[in-house]
Amino acid sequence: MSSNKIGTLGVMVCRKPGFPPFGEKEFLRELSSKAKELGMQVFVFCPDDASPASGVESSIDRIQGYHFNPGEGWSFRTFPPPDVIYDRCLHRNGEETAAAGECLNRMLQQGVRLWSRGLPGKQKVHQLLKRSSALRPYLPATLSYAGAESLSRALLAFGSRLFMKPSGGSQGRHTLYLALTDQQRVRLQGRDRSNRIFQQTIPAQEMNEWVRRFTGRRRFIIQPYLELRNRNGDPFDIRSLVQKNDRGRWSITGIAARQGVSQGLTSNLHGGGTAFPALPYLTTDFGEEKAMKIIQNIRDLSAQLPSLLEEGFGRLGELGIDFGVDTKGRVWILEVNSKPGRRAFTLTGDGHAARLSVEHPIQYARYLLLRQLRRVNT
């Protein structure tokens, strides 16, 4: 345990150009300020900022990281290993994944506490949730993409329209809508690796080779295409943020509707989307009574999911659960993210949810440290 009143929270992030060299600056500033109120310290670091004492196999004894002070901004300093590590690395490639994994493993071996485990790929999450008879009706059928044969099997099972996305988190990037037309042609629409929107039509005989090149070496899943658009034709989903609080218990922080750009497929904010309060948004299409039932359905599912996921994958701290609502008002569980964003609540003007989304992570870190202290002192 560090010399701070309670302890330190180290936030691990992936490096980006600029100073400081990471994203989510506003969230991390607010997190740092809240930590100070609770007798804790936050610093932010990249995996390659953690230095071993000597030799490749030794433990980490110092970390070059960034600390925020109101009025002074970000400063670059040297820190001892934190008491708790909060993994906010959004990996863009295999090298970043490997570097973050190695850094985490080294610190865990020397007694640093992990704030939360991460979730595996979408297919494994789907398989776990499918075991629940209560959740099964809300899950779109899902297959793993493994080349031409799996694509043909999906078209046979799901019909002529499919949706494909990476098994690992993609924030809407590298997604594909595929539709067979009557003229033996294939309509393709989606976002490429750089999150740019594309549309094109190709002969059916070129489909397998085109999809093979599009997916590359990444693992993809295939699902039936669902009509998840509002009455104006804009794609949307409902984001539910659930987090552990200062008592280590799950609570629903907030629920927001996210709307994507009209020519796109997904509703991710990274792709140019925006957010609205969920109930008024759904009321526009479904009426107030049905909209309230949809929100209650989403709240009930949000309360069920965390414990099931923890049983299968270990202790978690927060989850962003994305729900689809089709044109008939049917709710679908689209995706669960263990490193969720929280900008939707700022965009909707939901100050209460926005504040809690920052407070809960530091409160939960404090809860973990105080529980550890109580065990040591008893």
Task: Tell me what the structure shows.
- A 6-stranded antiparallel β-sheet has the order 8-13-9-10-11-12, with helices on one face. A 5-stranded antiparallel β-sheet has the order 16-15-14-17-18, with helices on both faces.
- The chain starts with 6 loop residues before the first strand and ends with a helix.
- The chain is globular.
- Helix 1 packs across helix 9 (351-376).
- A hairpin with a 7-residue loop joins strand 3 and strand 4.
- It has helices at residues 25-37, 94-109, 122-130, 148-158, 207-215, 278-286, 288-313, 343-348, 351-376; strands at residues 7-12, 40-45, 50-52, 60-69, 73-79, 84-87, 113-114, 143-144, 161-166, 175-180, 185-191, 197-203, 220-224, 236-244, 250-259, 274-277, 318-325, 331-337.
- The chain folds into 3 domains: 7-115, Rossmann fold (3-Layer(aba) Sandwich), CATH 3.40.50.20; 122-139 and 229-362, ATP-grasp fold, B domain (D-amino Acid Aminotransferase, Chain A, domain 1, 2-Layer Sandwich); 143-224.
- With 378 residues, the protein is of the alpha+beta class.
- 33% of the residues lie in helices and 29% in strands.
- The protein contains 9 helices and 18 strands.
